[in-house]
């Protein structure tokens, strides 16, 4: 059973009618337990077990956009931007959001956009070196240990094997996974999404994605509205991200 977790989203709202529309749309989702909104701060707080990507879609169904501002508690969440290292203009093809909900359980919300139709495998690799794309990320994390020591009934495969996602003829795929790992074990490692689970991988393969897992903000940790580096607000940055395929 998945433990409930909290998420915070920035959502443009002008009145209580907006709040009611958003709350009504969200409560249609399975796993939504609580929805609160702060009209002044333009924030929506959600508790439950629904994937963040489903929450964004439900809010967008009301005609509004949404930006994930935080999930879980401090030091319990991570993100991985997945890119192809082939010579193409639009390299970003996926996003993985992760939140730890118990000492030994992390949920992974994986969204893909722009790959050829088919089944793809998501794996965590031993190294975080993506200088040559997926080619330089090493083997599957924990695979050698599992092979040498063997695995018990509760853990039949390496923890670095996260699962698979089916991509449709539009190039899109989404899956919500749970794995017996902690966030701190993943930070700095790479994630690979490819039709080939084990490798070796080819750098120029447009349909092999890779990224480095980085820590992200907890539900109360991110109140920044303007980036100090670019001077752009969160909605300006959001438009750039959507243009790059990061839904």
From TrEMBL:
Coiled coil: none
Pfam families associated with the record: HMA, Sod_Cu
GO molecular function: copper ion binding
Cofactor: Cu(2+)
Keywords: Cytoplasm, Disulfide bond, Metal-binding
GO cellular component: cytoplasm
Listed Gene3D superfamilies: 3.30.70.100, Superoxide dismutase, copper/zinc binding domain
SUPFAM superfamilies to which the protein is assigned, alphabetical: Cu,Zn superoxide dismutase-like (SSF49329), HMA, heavy metal-associated domain (SSF55008)
GO biological process: superoxide metabolic process
Cellular location(s): Cytoplasm
Main localization (coarse): cytoplasm
Similarity annotation: In the C-terminal section; belongs to the Cu-Zn superoxide dismutase family. Belongs to the CCS1 family.
Protein name: Superoxide dismutase 1 copper chaperone
Species the sequence originates in: Penicillium steckii
